[in-house]
TrEMBL record:
Membrane topology: Multi-pass membrane protein
Family statement drawn from the similarity comment of this UniProt entry: Belongs to the binding-protein-dependent transport system permease family. LivHM subfamily.
Compartments reported by the entry: Cell inner membrane
Transmembrane segments: 12-35, 42-59, 65-88, 100-122, 151-168, 200-224, 230-258, 270-296
Pfam families: BPD_transp_2 (PF02653)
Annotated organism of origin: Marinobacter zhanjiangensis
Keyword set, alphabetical order: Amino-acid transport, Cell membrane, Membrane, Transmembrane, Transmembrane helix, Transport
Keyword hit for Nuclease: no
Protein name from the UniProt record: Amino acid/amide ABC transporter membrane protein 1, HAAT family
Length: 299
């Protein structure tokens, strides 16, 4: 029974982190039909920005936890929004209407460029911002100990998921975005500024990726290459749930998270294999993912 509790706790904690990482990726694809390979680098930018800002704050003698959280939020939001605006306005806008494979290659090139930019700016030395994680402490569930910071990440993933659902389903902008998803040409004919909506969407998706990195910074050592590792996991989640579906990203994250936790506690040597085995199994029976819909062919 103790193993079951450990699997559930670890699985849902990991799933909440996976959803934070994948949410921005699936928002961008859902609206813009761009499989953004650069999302991993946006995650890494958020992690580096948060770790640098937290390092400066604690070096100055700061010890207020709420200020540390504010620093994480502000630094991640700023670098995510600014980077998203530059990438969309400076590059992607010139490529709209091109083949999706070409857009994939372009965003992969952006990922490689940003990886080198981060090495130039932050170097190759690991950055540590452990203080907020340690300050929140841990509590016991029977003989298991759980970090309160991890529970905060879970709560944040729920808030972001509900916020995205409300934005897309209950706001005027969300209705406009859904009309663009359904038929871009008709939306333009009805007077919708599609390019402006694309800019907003990409900035939001980029910001979500940077927030995921900023929140993760106190848990890990921030080193070159973390963005490349993350983008592979994010793809596994969104493909399992269905590209472009927020609900699918949430369900996919839970499935992958629980599968990984089960593997770690029972067959640790299969940790990486099980993630992709779950994705492959889902795609055998649901080629468009659990919540993905086949696109209608236009004649």
């Amino acid at each position: 029974m103790l193993t079951v509790w450990a699997i559930l706790i670890d699985g849902f904690i990991y799933a909440s982190w996976l959803f934070l990482v994948a949410a921005g990726l699936t928002v961008i694809y859902g609206v813009m039909r761009i499989l953004n390979m650069a999302h991993g680098s946006l995650y890494a930018l958020g992690a580096y920005a948060a770790a640098s800002a937290l390092g400066w704050y604690y070096a100055q003698g700061g010890d207020q936890l709420w200020i540390a959280f504010a620093i994480i939020a502000v630094s991640a939001i700023l670098i995510g929004a600014i980077s998203g605006l530059i990438i969309e306005r400076g590059l992607l806008r010139l490529m709209y209407g091109r083949d999706e494979i070409l857009m994939l290659i372009i965003t992969f090139a952006v990922l490689l460029i940003l990886e080198d930019v981060m090495k130039l700016v932050w170097g190759t030395t690991p950055y540590f911002a452990w203080q907020p994680y340690a300050a929140m402490g841990r509590f016991n569930i029977d003989v298991l100990t759980v970090s309160q910071y991890d529970l905060l990440v879970m709560a944040l993933s729920v808030v972001i998921g509900l916020g995205l659902w409300f934005w897309l389903e209950r706001t005027n902008m969300g209705k406009i975005l859904r009309s663009i998803i359904h038929d871009r040409e008709v939306s333009e004919a009805m007077g919708v500024n599609v390019r402006r909506m694309f800019t907003i969407t990409f900035m939001i998706g980029a910001t979500l990726g940077a927030i995921a990195g900023g929140v993760t910074a106190p848990i890990i050592s921030v080193v070159p290459g973390i963005g490349v590792e993350v983008i592979v996991l994010a793809f596994a989640v969104v493909v399992t749930g269905g590209l472009g579906s927020i609900t699918g990203a949430a369900v996919g994250a839970v499935i992958v998270g629980l599968a990984r936790a089960t593997s770690i506690h029972t067959m640790p040597e299969l940790e990486l294999f099980i993630i992709y085995a779950v994705m492959a199994t889902v795609l055998v029976f649901r080629p468009h993912g659990l919540f993905g819909l086949a696109a209608a062919r236009k004649i």
